[in-house]
Amino acid sequence: MFFWHERRAGIDVAITDRHGGVSSAPFGELNLARHVGDEPAAVEANRAAVAAELGLPAERLVFMDQCHGATVEVIDGPWQGDPPACDAVITRASDLALVVMVADCVPVLLADPEAGVVGAVHAGRPGLVAGVVGAALDALADLGARAPYAVVGPSVCGRCYEVPEEMRAAAAAVEPASATVSWTGTPAIDVGAGVVAQLAGRGVPVTWVPGCTREDDRLFSYRRTSPTGRFAGAIRRYAVDPAYLIERPSHPTETS
User: Fold this and answer.
1) Which residues have CB under 8 Å from 173's CB, separation 6+?
2) 58: phi then psi, degrees, rounded to nearest 5
3) Which family does it belong to (predicted)?
4) Domains along the sequence of the chain with CATH
5) φ and ψ at residue 15, rounded to 5 degrees
């Protein structure tokens, strides 16, 4: 169920994989998205299973209607009705899991434990160019964050994200680190590298969870198979259990 999971004192961060759910092909098994054509009952069962693993009821998961923009929504409790149309959500509330769904885009989870603020960001190529990462960091700062850290989840790698030259140039104009070449030497974009560079440029320590969604069949990838499901990054604040204070999992990759 979890591709990666970490608990630091007061913060729970998880990235799901595609296993441990009830969806059938091509959404098998742990699809969390309602909009891809999967059976609604299967999606709800999958969401409830993830929530249970996080120690929450399903209604404490907050999803987004992701728009490939830079809109940030501040959440103060369980969301009623249709999910907010945005690409970043932040909260001070405890025991509320903020969720970003992806199948090649970059999931970014942000936290400042001392300020008691967390956020989830959906950063695809359009969001990278639009500045969603900076917008989310600004919104966290407005809520008192002074020393946030980030977990950046797996996404399609630059080798597998071939694009027209003009598209690469547009991304590079915003973040030069995103410009790269594909396996065959054609123009490509590494959105994950661009996101990490933007975070580092703001002085944010980053844990970059390795993996390419197109190459790793434990994860959903729209570039590999379409239609397909969505995996997720989730983050929440929780009441500190003293046992967690000595539980410090190793980081796959860290930059700062």
Assistant:
1) none
2) -60, -30
3) Belongs to the purine nucleoside phosphorylase YfiH/LACC1 family.
4) 2-237 (3.60.140.10)
5) -125, 125
Are the CB atoms for 98 and 62 separated by under 8 Å? yes
- Over range 185-211, report the average pLDDT: 98
Side-by-side strand order, sheet with 72-75: 72-75, 88-91, 117-123, 106-112, 149-152, 206-208, 254-255
Q: What are phi and psi of 142, to 5 degrees?
A: -65, -25
Q: What is the pTM of this model?
A: 0.92
| Tens-digit pLDDT profile for residues 71-118 | 999 999 999 899 999 999 999 999 999 999 999 999 999 999 999 999
